[in-house]
Amino acid sequence: MLNDRVKKLRTDSREARPRISMERARLVTDAYREHAGTVSPPVLRALAFRHLMRQKRVRINEGELIVGERGPAPQATPTFPELCCHTVDDLRVIRDRDRVCFDVDDEDIALQRDEMIPFWQGRSMRDRIFSEMTPEWIECYEAGIFTEFMEQRAPGHTVAGDKVYRKGMLDLKRDIGMAVEQIDPDADPGAQEKLNQLQAMQICCDAIVEYAGRHCRAALELAADEKDPGRTEELHRIAEICRKVPANAPGTFWEALQAYWFVHIGVITELNTWDSFCPGRLDQHLYPFYRREVEAGILNPERARELLQCFWIKFNNQPAPPKVGVTMEESGTYTDFANINIGGLRADGSDGVNDLSYLLLEVVDEMRLTQPSSNVQISKRSPGRFLQKAGEVIRRGFGQPSVFNADAVVVELLRQGKAIEDARRGGTSGCVETGAFGKEAYFLTGYFNLAKVLEITLHDGLDPQTGKRLGPGTGDPRCFSHFDELVGAYEAQVNHFIDVKIRGNHVIEKLYAEEMPSPFLSLVIDDCIENAADYNAGGARYNTSYIQGVGIGTTTDSMSAIRHHVFERETLTMDDLLSALRTDFCGAEKTRQLLQNRTPRYGNDDDCADELMRQIFEIFFSSVEGRPTVRGGTYRINMLPTTCHVYFGAVTGATPEGRRAHVPLSEGISPVQGADLHGPTGVIKSAAKMDHLRTGGTLLNQKLTPDILEGESGLRRLAALIRSYFLLDGHHIQFNVVSADTLRAAQDEPEKHRNLIVRVAGYSDYFNHLSAELQDEIIARTEHGRL
Amino acid sequence: MASGLVYDIQRFSVHDGPGIRTTAFFKGCPLDCWWCHNPESIAPYREVIFRSDKCIGCGACTDACPGELPGDERLSGPGECHLCGACCDCCPTGAREMVGEKMTPGELCSELEKDRVFYEQSGGGVTFSGGEPLAQPEFLLASLRECVRRGIRTAVDTSGCADPDVLDQVADEADILLYDIKHTDDRAHRKYVGVSNSQILDNLQRLARRRGGGGLIARLPLIPGINDDPENLSAVGQLLADLGIRRLHLLPYHRAGTEKYPLLDKQNRLSNLTPPGSEDIGAAKDRLQKYGICVRTGG
Questions:
Q1: How confident is the model at residue B78, as a pLDDT?
Q2: Residue A708: what pLDDT?
Q3: What is the maximal distance between C-alpha atoms in chain B?
Q4: Pick the CATH number of B4-43+101-297 from 3.20.20.70, 3.40.50.1240, 3.40.50.620, 3.30.43.10
Q5: A72-101 tens-digit pLDDT
Q6: pLDDT given for residue A591 in this prediction
Q7: From the CA of A679, how many Å to the nearest CA of chain B?
């Protein structure tokens, strides 16, 4: 259980109010004022990073063992004006909104108005992106056909590999030196750019070492005033560690955690990367240190546990940077998506589960924090005991860990052309995204509203919500004589909107590659140094861009309803259907009931519906898969929503499966809320008909009542459900184990349920932090229990 | 091939045998237990049930009825209604529902096979329940053999009120038999179950001899005031001990079925019965365990 130190740190972390700190904005602006226009973009970014590392306040929290905060205090969150320069109104909204709010001081609003806005307006990435997008793109974006991930956050979605534990910054500087020597300025027309990039990386190496050195001095200063001899000794130890890492490779378990943490702070201070940053396969990386020290009697498992718990708190201290607009809608949470992987495979294909895997599961259970998130990677080699242990944590009902199919992850990566060792060292990050950890820049570029495109298809290219023509004319569906004509029209519309999206992506990716490199992040991702190219510019060994499909359940059921009622049974004409949709089923309740209840629906292991799901999947897949990106990578799809199914639902009118206008779409690849009537095995069978192996991740949510998982037999059932899904090549499954009654009670009396954490979509959040729509949506997801 | 009447196929059934199972509920039962929580399982023919809370009064059923469905009056059972199902097919909300589907063993087993992967991963399989599955002997045997052929493990949940020869044949095919005991006292049995218990007890003896207690699990519904008295519990314990049956599922009465009675226009004779508390269940369990029986609450 938690000792007093960890208890206190945990309470401090949970009770600190998120607030905006202008420290970073000020420092970055100073650096830009001084250097912009005089140096190359990567060097400018490096100088801004160095200024931050030299000047930002150093904070060592009382009692902590791992040090380094992004802001000046826990939960104090910087802004990134070079990406998104908030308006004064934005800051007021961030301060005053009901959820995911941040305290903002009046003087900070004044500072924003008087100094930040005049400097950054028209210069921030957000302003530049929106000014460079075509009117067509803007209209589609405003209609909610797709979202744009990079409009106020930097590309990220990346995870550290083992480099952080093998090499210190001094080693990386040597690597940089070698890369410089490889460049032949006479033969290579890109030589200067490469040299600029390497110079920037080198500046970043020195900067993070300086930052660690400042912590060393701060720890010694604290030690000098410390009365408690135990703490004095700890502070001396901390100082010693900060002197050593990240300049040098870590030599101990504690040093390894601290080395990672400095890198983490570096990455999330350099830019506001999506999904923050993540140590990935933590049990694999730390195990050599752990085993060596435990065997030598230097480290006992309890001390390791305490260090890990202190490490966990560091994640929880850093909420996601404040989001506004559509980005807030698609990802409305403080959670910043670091997702620790536990278990999985080793590079040689053997089972990766070790003693530390079990210890990490205990830490997850004891900490019960929304950050970092955690998952188990289950392969066919994973021992039953490990899955059982994970099941024990899952059934406590706070939504962690989620469960991934490590074998499927390997196949997904292999299919994308990765080396098998890199695939086995990979895992999943963010919500469910597959990646070759430490070696891949995989950008999520935006959600894609599959249901909205059907709405537009049914209106021959017009958006009935605005009356604007957004898509090509693909025919008046009232004139279609076969269902296949509708499918063909839908395909044409999907292709059109994906074209629009990707054309926009090209411009945005190029802007990031050229103007907003991340030389510090590039240090730790292979092979940016060797390639002398930035993470944002294709420097990584593998480069992938994703578009995430949302609402496949809603879209499948809608298509199924049309086929069944309009084309097969002829219980309705297309005209009847369209007028019912137009009026949001006003005066057409019978029609709505018929569509909702008498349609073969996805999630019931019914091939009639599930085949349509496959067809829609293929349409989306084919429209995206394999297209080239600006930075030399490839487009792929994945199927996850975060909270975007709520936003996409809000912009989509009534749909043919009886869904009323503006309510959430189905989330992930889960069936429409309440449409699955044959229990979890039916859902799993339906979901497994999707070809997960051709995605970079899918998200399946299951809600189970606690009684289903009671006792040993309950755990065995849970394990069997998971193993079965994975035998069928399912990618991921997560469980909400909490009764609908409990959730309703929490809605009625939120103050009594402050601790209630639920699984949302690829992450867990406090139930009280969710919007009312999302709360209702989670309650509505079918609760599979005893009949 | 003999077809049969099935009224429900419940996947992810976790209370009718080991592992993850699918339970096929056969329609038709020779017993008439007061506590029956599946009253729709009793009649050996299709029935229309009507859920008034789901009805939106759209009138589709009256329009569709080829007979003389008067106004919004509901009809069920043979006689007035020919059970053509037109009213159910057109009902937009599912307020009208036809209970009972005719299936061949092949059709049934194709449905049951859908969860094969879960059976294999969990050590589960298929359970034939009811109603009384042995009341459709040819259909049951053919379905069991079809499961065996497809490599699916099986269980049969029976009241034991069946032809002994049929029981023998079923016992030869099924991996597990779940055998209900309701009451050891014949008078009480006649009153609350509607038939004498003599054939049921004889069959149990016969089965125990034949299988020696292997793959045989007794099930006792625990109905307050009816069969939860110490005398009956002791008698059940003694009987099982004598027969060498070591496993018993104790199934405490629950009210889940009470809402179904009005849908079928049936009288619930136990409408005011309160389910047993955990102390009552614990006491019953203790009493039965004294006979060396391994007792599990729930299936």
A1: 42
A2: 82
A3: 62
A4: 3.20.20.70
A5: 999 999 999 999 999 999 999 999 998 899
A6: 96
A7: 6
Burial of B92 (0-12, 13-18, 19+ CB in 10 A): buried
Task: Decide if B92 touches A, using CB distance below 8 A.
Answer: yes
pLDDT at B254: 84
**Category of A85 on φ-ψ map: left (φ > 0), alpha (ψ -120 to 50) or beta:** beta
pLDDT at A760 over 80: no
pLDDT tens profile A418-460: 999 999 999 999 999 999 999 999 999 999 999 999 999 999 9
Residue of A205, A278, A431, A644 with catalytic role? A431
Contact A239, A220 (CB under 8 A): yes
pLDDT of residue A771: 83
- Report the b/e string of A305-344 with b at 16+ CB within 10 A: bbbbbbbbbbbbbbbbbbbbebbbbbbbbbbbbbbbbbbb
- Predicted local distance difference test score (pLDDT) of residue B52: 86
Residues of B with Cβ-Cβ distance to A679 under 8 angstroms? 10-12
Distances (CA, A) of A629 to A113, A158, A452: 37, 17, 25
Q: Compute the distance between CA of residue A690 and CA of residue A613 in angstroms, rounded to an integer.
A: 7
Contact A720 B122 (CB under 8 A): yes
- Does the active-site annotation cover A431? yes
- Give all strands (DSSP E) within A325-371, no chain letters: 339-343
Q: What is the pLDDT of residues A137-181, one digit of tens each?
A: 999 999 999 999 999 999 988 899 999 999 999 999 999 999 999
H-state helical runs in A229-300: 229-244, 253-270, 282-296
Distance from CA of A683 to the nearest CA of B (A): 11
Catalytic residue among A64, A433, A509, A657: A433
**Are the C-beta atoms of B66 and B226 separated by less than 8 Å?**
no
Q: B117 — contact with chain A (CB < 8 Å)?
A: yes
Q: Which two tokens stand for residue A285?
A: 């990386």
**Among A50-59, A269-278, A770-779, B105-114, whose mean pLDDT is lowest?**
A770-779
ipTM value: 0.93
As a whole number of angstroms, the distance between CA B168 and CA B203 comes to 9
Residue A703: per-residue pLDDT: 82
- A365-376 residue pLDDT tens: 999 999 999 999
pTM summary value = 0.95
Same fold: B4-43+101-297 with B47-99: no
Fold classified for B47-99 = Alpha-Beta Plaits (3.30.70)
Return the SS3 of A751. Answer: helix
The answer to whether the CB atoms of B12 and A589 lie below 8 A apart is no
Nearest CA in chain B to A599: B92
- Tens digit of each residue's pLDDT (9 = 90 or more) over A595-654: 999 999 999 999 999 999 999 999 999 999 999 999 999 999 999 988 899 999 999 999
Where are the domains positioned within chain B?
4-43+101-297, 47-99
Closest CA to A269 of A533, A112, A77: A77
Q: What does the CA dihedral A106, A109, A110, A115 come to, rounded to 10 degrees?
A: 150
Count chain A–chain B contacts defined by CB atoms under 8 A. 67
d(CA A616, CA A279) in angstroms, rounded, equals 35
